[in-house]
Amino acid sequence: MTEAWTEVGGAARAVEHLRAAVLRRRPIPRLTETMALSLDQAYEIQKRLIEVDLAAGARRIGYKMGLTSPAKMKQMNVDVPAFGQLLDRMLLQDGASLRREELIHPRVELEVAVILGDGVDPNRVKTVDDVASRIRAMAVALEVIDSRYEGFRFTLPDVVADNASAARFVLGSAFVRPSKDVHLWGARLFKNGEAVGFGTPANVLGHPFAAVLALARLLAEHGFPPLAAGDVVLTGAIGEAVPVEAGDVVEGVLDHAGSVHLRLV
Ligand code: OOG
Ligand code: MG
Questions:
Q1: What's the CA gap between 256 and 163, in Å, rounded?
Q2: pLDDT digits (tens, 9 = 90+) for 87-130
Q3: What's the pLDDT at 190?
Q4: Measured between alpha carbons, how far is 64 from 84 in angstroms, rounded to an integer?
Q5: Tell me, what's the pLDDT at 1?
Q6: DSSP bridge partners of 242
Q7: Is there an atom of ligand 1 within 6 Å of 66 CB?
Q8: Can you tell me the distance from the alpha carbon of 164 to that of 146, in angstroms, rounded to the nearest whole number?
Q9: How much distance in Å is there from the Cα of 8 to the middle of ligand 1?
Q10: Do 43 and 160 form a contact (C-beta atoms < 8 A)?
Q11: Cβ partners under 8 Å of residue 186, min gap 6
Q12: Residues 6+ apart with CB under 8 A from 23
């Protein structure tokens, strides 16, 4: 049975369930199994979820776009991009060790990260060129996603409420100048020295800067503050996410931007 959203405490209960999943490292059933959720309501839950962290002293340092490539859309059976919020405590140093037991069922993705040098107002920034002029630097990134839902399965409103499965991320140590050619650079993902993914950032909505544009529009549409100078944006996985376990070493490589490493322990 699905409950009406208007029923008292719907959003608060959703936030409680999602937080409990993180704290106990135990997945929960999808919210939409017991709750009818619109996309707007899902973003409202995400907002409240993150407000708890912010109230506890966390800082939002940017955003992630997800489900921006055909590989990811197919893998997750969701065909509309979604965004999540990045907090300072999610950022790991290049080469860091991450304890597997901190997470439920982690997967790693290879992405292009951008650091903005300027705000992105979707009323004025309309093209990939416009976005390029607002980027201070780019880096190759690994994103560790960890859906709070059983079986890593969800609908679009579920994954939106769950902050787009955000868990951790690592930026490569080489920050490079923005290049409009980045969509043509070769990208490769290795697990324990074996190639497990390759492609180009053109997989991401045609160009990773187009993902920044899509993010700016989604933020406005759902009543979030606009992108600002200093924000980090993960533009979305270039290929499929790869499950990882303790003992695994992951490396991401992007032409002209070096590499990025993470070890699961
Ligand atoms: C949702 C997050 C997807 C990406 O880069 O596509 C994502 C998920 O697949 O759990 O971060
Ligand atoms: Mg991602």
A1: 31
A2: 999 999 999 999 999 999 999 999 999 999 999 999 999 999 99
A3: 98
A4: 5
A5: 44
A6: 108
A7: yes
A8: 9
A9: 30
A10: yes
A11: 198, 200, 254, 255
A12: none
Give every CB contact of residue 263 below 8 A, 6+ residues apart in sequence.
Answer: 95, 96, 97, 98, 248, 249, 250
Classify residue 57 as left (phi > 0), alpha (psi -120 to 50) or beta: left
Q: Extract the residue ranges of the chain whose pLDDT is less than 50.
A: 1, 6-8
Find tokens 């190639």 and name the residue: 195
If you measure from the C-alpha of residue 65 to the centroid of ligand 2, how many angstroms do you get, rounded to a whole number? 6
Q: Whose C-alpha lies nearest to ligand 1, atom 8?
A: 165
CA of 27 to the centre of ligand 1 (A): 17
Kindly give, in sequence order, each residue whose CB lies less than 8 Å from that of residue 108, ignoring residues fewer than 6 positions away: 142, 143, 144, 145, 189, 191, 241, 242, 244, 250, 262
Residues 138-157: tens digit of each pLDDT: 999 999 999 999 999 999 99
Pairing of strands 249-254, 187-191: antiparallel
- Measured from the alpha carbon of residue 79, the closest ligand is 1
